[in-house]
Amino acid sequence: MSPNAGAGLELRQLCRQVGDRRLLDRLDLHVAPGECVALLGPSGCGKSTTLRLVAGLDPASGGQVLLDGEDLSERGPGERQVAMVFQSYALYPHLSVAGNLELGLKVRGMAPRERQRRIDATLELLQLGELRQRRPAQLSGGQRQRVALARALLRDPRIVLLDEPMSNLDAQLREELRPELRRLLCGREQPVIYVTHDQQEAVGMADRIALLEAGRLQQVGSPRELYTNPANRFVASFLGRPAINLLAIEPGRQLGLRPEHLELGDNGAVAARLLRREWWGHQQLLWLDSPWGTLRVLTAPEAPTPPEPRLSWQRQHELWFDPQSGARLAP
Amino acid sequence: MRLLVLLWSLGPLLWQLRTSLLRPEALVAPLLDGNPWTLANYQLVLSGDPPFWRYLANSTLVGLVTTVLTLLLAVPCAYGLHKERGPVRWGVGLALVAAAMFPTVLLFLALLEIARSFGLANNLLSLSLPYTALSLPLAVLLLRAAFADLPPELEDAARLEGLNLGQRLKHVLLPLLGPALASTAILVFLASWNEYAIALTWISRNDLLTLPIAIARIGGGSVFTIPYGAFAAATVLGSLPLLLLVLLAQRSIVSGLTRGAVKG
User: N or C: at which end does chain B have fewer Cβ atoms within 10 angstroms?
Assistant: First the structure.
């Protein structure tokens, strides 16, 4: 056994069932120290459930949460040294910024001087020094998010969990904050789990992405692995915008082709007719009518469209799926 | 328009104030001679034996003890019900609504029996017991709703920071429930302040009477005269502490509401 075996956060066969509803079904996931894994999926897929189980806020119906080989399952949320940033930030509205940071340290019995030192250092790190006496209601969305982050990082947590921390911010601010968040979170020694439903955010934040649907893990891997080699149709169609084209070409098999892999030319396998053109600046998206239904094709922004376009593609880009189960089939 | 609405609400109170300041003869017909205004009604009320402030003190004591007792019992119950899922929550909730709607009048003979067998009669503190019991269902329902209005992540965040239940209540939940606690306390205090039937049957000693009973006992010059002026003066005096209470609590209610919530 290497000295590093079992290091980091490991979820083993983690389950959560409420009544008849299976919210999370036997999740296995390993997050290495310093690694950021994004839990991605549509709402209700079990990603927030997973976070709450790791934090100990909800009891697991089965399975284990291990940190550096140590089973956390029997520990309460206050004893796990887990920090979590909530979607709503969950700042205490009756306390100032400094008060929000101080409460957790105070109940742990930390001496006032040490508390002040830590709070000052964290506020400095997040450039919140001037806001220390403000109430949450007097802060902007981005500032609240930073305060929530400060509160999470203050206690030197062993695990950092983020539950859609950016979804209350507008799109531009989100993009601005992403590198900052990465700088603060990743590359420290804690494992980080980042929950989001936004694939751009997942790709921007995480080293690896775990895609969930209906409580089941669909695939884990780097963004590139998930995109180029999806385990099933759900993964293929969830990742990538505009979405993959799914074509019922032959009985018993479904062909998936990414919009950027379809080529327009004068000679191709299939005739098509241009319906609409969306011009995005760096690319253009063409909507085409074909015998297989409406297709999305991405081309260079200034690429000319032939008067009678025909579609072609390369064999290596073909992704085949079972039309019923959605499972990936060998080409 | 605003003035009209204000008059509509304050009219009866102002009328009461006017009645308390008029000579008895001036109440029924305009006086032909002399000044109709007088402080005699207040003198009559205040010069009684025991003095009027004694009743005020009695009612205040009962009200305060009732309010504190009710909140002490209602807060844990409301929190527990708020956290509870399934049939217990449903059943207890239903029982509370039923208890809150139960006609009190049907209880007071039984309560009198209880007072007799446990020696609770003629004791102001023991009067708080039935008052607390009667206020509790409504207080629990109000506070449960207030707990439910708090964003659940606030408590989750506090749990993750290692706050135990007592610390969460003290540092996070109760400060945020300030306005709800204040309004519940006022309701409970008011109910105790105005209660008549139980106070009438449990208390017979003159110096232990609560305000409503004391006011009802104010007599006129003869059995045939009704001392409207004295009643009115006693009512005005009896309302002053309430006015003070609401004015004080109002500040906490308003400041609580402007604190700003999670998303703001």
Answer: N
Grouping H, G, I as helix, E, B as strand and the rest as coil, residue B17 is helix
Q: Which of B172, B173, B259, B262 should one mutate to test binding to chain A, selecting the residue with the greatest count of A CBs within 10 A?
A: B262
SS3 A25: strand
Q: Are strands A273-279 and A82-85 parallel, antiparallel or unpaired?
A: unpaired
Q: Kind and range of the H or E element at A280?
A: none
In the numeric block, the tokens 């990082």 are attached to A153
Provide the shortest C-alpha distance from residue B188 to chain A (in Å): 26
Q: What percent of chain A has pLDDT over 90?
A: 59
Chain B residues within an 8 Å CB radius of A84: 156-157, 160
**Nearest Cα to B218, choosing from B49, B58, B53, B62?**
B49
Are B163 and A103 a contacting pair at CB < 8 A?
yes
Q: Helix/strand/coil (H, E, C) string of B96-128?
A: HHHHHHCCHHHHHHHHHHHHHHHCCCCCHHHHH
A137 three-class SS: helix
Give residue B107's identity as a one-letter amino acid code: L
DSSP A115: H
The two structure tokens encoding residue A120: 């000052």
User: What gap in Å lies between CA B236 and CA B223, rounded to an integer?
Assistant: 24
Show Cβ contacts of residue B179 under 8 Å, excluding neighbours closer than 6 positions. B252, B253, B256, B257
The residue in chain B having the minimum alpha-carbon distance to the alpha carbon of residue A168 is: B263
Residues 6+ apart with CB under 8 A from B239: B13
**Residue A271 forms beta bridges with which residues?**
A310
- Tell me the sheet residues that pair with A161: A84, A193
Which residues in chain A (146-185) have CB-CB distances under 8 A to chain B? Answer: 151, 155, 168
A130: burial class by Cβ within 10 Å (0-12, 13-18, 19+)?
Answer: exposed
Tell me which residue of B224, B239, B80 sits closest to B165, measured CA to CA: B80
Which residue in the set B163, B175, B263 is minimally distant from A88, CB to CB? B263
State whether the Cα torsion A184-A188-A190-A193 is positive or negative.
Answer: positive
Instruction: Calculate helix-pair angle for B52-83, B124-149, nearest 10 degrees.
Output: 40
| Residues in B touching A92 (Cβ below 8 Å) | 154, 157-158, 171-172, 176
A230, A328 Cβ separation under 8 angstroms = yes
Q: Are A313 and A244 spatial neighbours (Cβ–Cβ below 8 Å)?
A: no
Average pLDDT over residues A24-37: 94
Residues 6 or more apart whose Cβ sits within 8 Å of residue A204: A178, A182
Cα–Cα distance measured from residue B45 to residue B217, given in angstroms and rounded to the nearest whole number? 11
- The length of chain B in residues reads 264
| pLDDT confidence bin for B262, thresholds 50/70/90 | very low
Distance between alpha carbon A260 and the CA centroid of its chain, in Å?
A: 23
Nearest alpha carbon to residue A21 among A46, A39, A41, A43:
A46
Interface of B with A in 140-169 (CB under 8 A): 151, 153-154, 156-164, 167
Of A90, A56, A55, A7, the C-alpha closest to A193 is A55
* ipTM of the shown complex: 0.85
| pLDDT at residue B264 greater than cutoff 70 | no
In order of A283, B14, B37, B242, the CA distances from B228 in angstroms are 89, 15, 14, 22
Q: What is the pLDDT of residues A231-240, one digit of tens each?
A: 999 999 999 9
